[in-house]
Specification:
By secondary structure, this protein is of the alpha/beta class. The chain folds into four domains: 193 residues, P-loop containing nucleotide triphosphate hydrolases (Rossmann fold); 193 residues, P-loop containing nucleotide triphosphate hydrolases (Rossmann fold, 3-Layer(aba) Sandwich), CATH 3.40.50; 103 residues, Winged helix-like DNA-binding domain superfamily/Winged helix DNA-binding domain (Arc Repressor Mutant, subunit A), CATH 1.10.10.10; 74 residues, Orthogonal Bundle (DNA polymerase, domain 1). The chain is built from 28 helices and 17 strands. It has a seven-stranded parallel sheet with strand order 3-4-2-5-6-1-7, sandwiched between helices. Strands 8-13-12-9-11-10 form a six-stranded parallel sheet, with helices on both faces. A two-stranded antiparallel sheet has the order 14-17. Helix 13 links the parallel strand 10 and strand 11. The longest helix has 21 residues. It binds adenosine-5'-diphosphate and zinc ion. Zinc ion binds next to helix 17 and helix 18.
């Protein structure tokens, strides 16, 4: 059937088959049903409303809060030969009037509308006089007042149900916790909608946590060794660190841009645009950088500081690998991070309940960092999903060796007790090492029985033991004591010998060697295909510049990679590659064959 969803997927989008729940969702909405789609980033939510918009008569109206992206989304559809346009405040009155006219006459397949625009009388009246295929409400979690992206206009979108009861609605989001789900259903009046939910897992992301030593150099080696020329995001806690890190990477020949709330809106937007549109830009950002990134080929997300919660970490790392190709989530973290975040919570404005929740979230994050088991299993368990070891995280790939650390932990705990449970880790470790610092001498800690009992382990190892001790709940960082370590009641069983403690075997961090440059994307390509891939990328860059669209709008990395691997010799061979639809075959097929022949 010419108009069947599968035919549209293959001929227009150039993909051979639907993934996951896509086919079910599309059938349901195409038949006029309402749907709530809860699927993680990168699972292909857009097709869930794009295909039904094409199957059904009339215009698909897409409500999206991300004005900055509408232009790119529409450009991507235009590249596929889909008739799409947008209505938002960036248009002139004449441009808007032209688009409105096309909506009224059903001359568009899809129109993207900002929520505040949609809610105007003018727009609602227009829609009442236009043939409509469906309403898609993207980023539907924006209705949640307790969420991180609350948009007051989203609440008023219930008007769609009241004024257009016969037009199917599909709401989509990657935020799938139970409370948000309930709020979306209630506020958008989606009680009748079928709910489609999948696991929050992002199997193509490889999680890795490394001990912080020389964070910036570690980052540099990570990027050079595994992400040469790739796009990525580096998250830091402070603006100052963002600036310094971006400068440092630039000075090392990596194209890096800063992004934080202290910059002017204009320079922020400029940097975001360059990141979005160019190939291989690294953005160094505070968490202010997030919503509004819709780049499928972000190959890595690096954290130079510990995130405050697993939710935040999941969201931030989730920006990697939307295209389904392998991606890395990499973090360096150390004891100082824990102390700093604890202090930030303690000094925050919130009441005690608020602080308790934040501390619990931080503890969960710490547990994730210190686990000897699969990180993905931990993360999914946090979101209420059971799973088995993934084989794609650092602890699965290089299982840490577990050793009996009872004596070391006892030494540490008793040193904390004997120094009075008021000093930070640095001082406690100095005492264990028998270091005669001014502070040690001043407090006469040379006289303690624990002075020097830990000499056989280096300071780094003691810090790792402190972190594990905190993660295991034997001690905590006490804000009333300015970050001093205090024992919990759980410490007693260890001190008395009633409880044994298993620790991760500690190794001196390897000195960063001169790393070979490499890229994750091309890692599994045969040598001779890598240079073809690079040529295709260069061609894509020029073509994207010519058309004024982001590079990935021309072709995704996955498509270029497949072309480089299989070297199609004819248009017909090229047609068989995922991501090459009829329109793109017409537009670029000949150029690509020429490039491959050359
Ligand atoms: P989401 O909105 O859920 O984050 P997108 O709609 O942006 O995800 O899709 C993520 C990527 O997966 C896009 O590059 C898209 O083209 C691709 N994709 C989606 N569905 C399919 C499919 N059935 N086959 C191949 N690629 C797909
Ligand atoms: Zn794992």
């Amino acid at each position: 059937m010419k108009n069947s969803p599968l035919h549209i997927l293959q001929s227009i989008f150039g993909y051979p088959a639907f993934r996951g729940h896509q086919a079910e969702v599309i059938d349901h909405v195409a038949a006029g049903g309402d749907a709530l789609v809860l699927m993680p980033t990168g699972s292909g939510k857009s097709l869930c409303y794009q295909v039904p918009s094409l199957v059904r008569d009339g215009v698909g109206v897409v409500v999206s809060p991300l004005i900055a992206l509408m232009q790119d989304q529409v450009a991507a559809l235009a590249e596929l030969g889909v008739r799409a346009a947008f209505l938002n405040s960036t248009l002139s009155a004449a441009e808007a009037a032209r688009t409105e006219q096309m909506v009224r006459h059903g001359e568009l397949d899809m129109v993207y509308v900002a929520p505040e625009r949609l809610l105007t009388d003018r727009c609602l009246t227009l829609l009442e006089h236009s043939p409509l295929a469906l309403f898609a409400i993207d980023e539907a979690h924006c209705v949640s007042q307790w969420g991180h992206d609350f948009r007051p206009e989203y609440i008023q979108l219930s008007v769609l149900h009241e004024r257009f009861p016969h037009v199917p609605r599909i709401a989509l989001t990657a935020t799938a916790d139970r409370q948000t789900r309930a709020e979306i259903i209630a506020r958008l009046q989606l009680q009748e909608a079928r709910v489609f939910a999948t696991s929050v897992d992002r199997p193509n992301i490889r999680y890795r946590v490394v001990e912080k030593a020389t964070a910036r150099t570690q980052l540099l080696h990570f990027i050079r060794g595994e992400h040469d020329g790739d796009a990525g995001i580096v998250y830091c806690l402070s603006r100052k660190k963002v600036e310094e890190t971006a400068e440092f990477l630039e000075s090392q020949g990596i194209s890096a841009l800063p992004y934080h709330a202290g910059m002017t809106a204009a320079s922020r937007q400029k940097n975001q645009q360059r990141f979005q549109r160019e190939d291989g830009v690294v953005i160094v950002a505070t968490i202010a950088f997030g919503m509004g990134i819709d780049k499928p080929d972000v190959r890595f997300v690096a954290h130079l500081d510990l995130p405050k919660s697993i939710e935040g970490y999941y969201q931030e790392t989730g920006r990697a690998g939307r295209d389904g190709l392998p991606a890395n989530a990499w973090m360096t973290y150390g004891l100082q991070d824990v102390v700093q975040l604890r202090r930030m919570i303690d000094e925050s404005e919130g009441d005690d309940d608020y602080k308790r929740i934040q501390i619990a979230k931080l503890d969960a994050m710490l547990g994730f960092c210190e686990t000897s088991d699969c990180r993905r299993v931990r993360m999914l368990a946090y979101f209420g999903e059971q799973s088995t070891p993934c084989g794609n995280c650092d602890t699965c790939l290089n299982p840490p060796v577990s050793v009996d650390g009872t004596i070391a932990m006892q030494q540490l705990l008793s040193c904390i007790a004997r120094t009075g449970q008021r000093f930070g880790a640095m001082h406690v470790i100095d005492v264990l090492l028998g270091a005669e610092t001014d502070k040690v001498l001043h407090w006469r800690h040379t006289e303690l029985s624990t002075f020097g009992i830990g000499r056989e382990r280096p300071a780094q190892e003691w810090r790792a033991i402190v972190r594990q001790g905190i993660a295991m709940g034997f001690m905590l960082v006490d804000h009333d004591q300015f970050g001093g370590l205090r024992l919990t009641s759980a410490a007693r069983a260890v001190l008395s010998g009633a409880q044994r403690v298993q620790l991760r075997e500690w190794h001196k961090a390897e000195r960063a060697k001169k790393t070979k440059r490499g890229s994750l994307v091309t890692a599994d390509l045969p040598m001779e295909s890598v240079s073809v891939f690079e040529r295709l990328r260069a061609w894509r860059r020029d073509t994207a510049l010519e058309h004024g669209v982001p590079a990935y709008v021309i072709f995704h990395d996955a498509t270029l990679k497949e072309i480089a691997r299989s070297r199609p010799a004819s248009l017909n061979d090229l047609r068989g590659i995922a991501g090459v639809g009829e329109r793109k075959l017409d537009a670029y097929g000949a150029q690509i064959l020429l490039l491959l022949a050359g």
